[in-house]
Amino acid sequence: MKERIIKSALNLFWRYGIKSVTMDDIAKDLGISKRTIYQHYSDKEAILALVIQEEIKTQKNEMEKLDEQASNPIEQMMYASVQMRDTLSNMNPTLLYDLKKYYPAAWELFQNYKHEYIIKSIHDNLIKGIELGLYRPDIDVDVLSMLRVEQIVMAFDPTIFPARKFNMMHTQMQFLLHFLRGVLSEKGFEYYNTIKDKSAIEINTHEK
Amino acid sequence: MKERIIKSALNLFWRYGIKSVTMDDIAKDLGISKRTIYQHYSDKEAILALVIQEEIKTQKNEMEKLDEQASNPIEQMMYASVQMRDTLSNMNPTLLYDLKKYYPAAWELFQNYKHEYIIKSIHDNLIKGIELGLYRPDIDVDVLSMLRVEQIVMAFDPTIFPARKFNMMHTQMQFLLHFLRGVLSEKGFEYYNTIKDKSAIEINTHEK
Predict the structure, then answer these.
(1) Which residues contact B170 (CB under 8 A, 6 or more apart)?
(2) ipTM score of complex
(3) Cα B6 from Cα B54, distance rounded (Å)
(4) What is the total count of domains within chain A?
(5) Within-domain flag for B12
(6) Residue B38 belongs to a domain
(7) CATH number at residue B143
(8) A143 to chain B: which residues are within 8 Å by CB?
């Protein structure tokens, strides 16, 4: 039952954001009583914390799988963005914003994940790309890995990219391709040109 | 006297941020009494509003001068960043952050300037670059002009780029060069390669 509650909450948060989902909604979704939920969890925030931990675990696993499949840092970055697209395509854009604004403890979990895992993973990607001569040697990996992660977060910010004007996944893909091109060396470009047509189709599909 | 007060306040804000500068400091700086200041301005916020309007006017003038000197959008973007470096090099990094946090009315003035002028200016630059074949035709100019202006703001954010770890001007220059490379077409690259050595030296000097 505990796992079913987390799974249901994840689905509901994903679709409707966090603020608008109540304990009643989760109970209804599972066809159980609210009391049953309260036997396992004291409140929505307790469920939210577990949902986020669960989602972070899933994303880490998927990223590790992709890293094994990618034959070089350029492919790795493109694969990661395809994964991001799949993960985010049906996510309600208010979710991250709800987190930041109304659930500081859960937001902190996400921030830790961002700092300890995502930034490190981008950082490693940049270092490896420089070593292989695919990225420019004169990029500052600390500055640019921070830029990349903040771009991902920025695309979710409705005060900067309001949903009525910007499609979030399209923005993310513009950011990714722009970021990648910005770090490529000449050798990297030659390689990128051989794979971009295939990948661009893959990445651009459904985006706008 | 009114102009002298604005000029003194601008210098003090620039050097020490806004929060820590008092009416007493401004009076001392000018060797006048605080009462003289109050004859002209009701409080620090009134001075601040004028300081910002004045600074925006100066920056607009300088940008327009540069735009006339630049022979193409790539040069224009590089000139603008050299100007930014000169303007910001002795600015206290807390200034923008002080504004946002403690002076919402003045922050609003800056936000308007950002939206009505800076974003439009980047937008025009991108359109012109695409028309001349120097930038890729597949960039989304709305998305990327927003990205560029938010990057400039982001480099000031001490929660993302703490001053003990990052040099603000170095971060800005990494952002600029990365942004520019990210939008270049192949033709743009060929041109960029002919000017970058000169410009890179110019841009990188004193940066770290």
Answers:
(1) A140, A143, B207, B208
(2) 0.80
(3) 8
(4) 1
(5) no
(6) no
(7) 1.10.357
(8) 161, 166, 170-171, 174-175
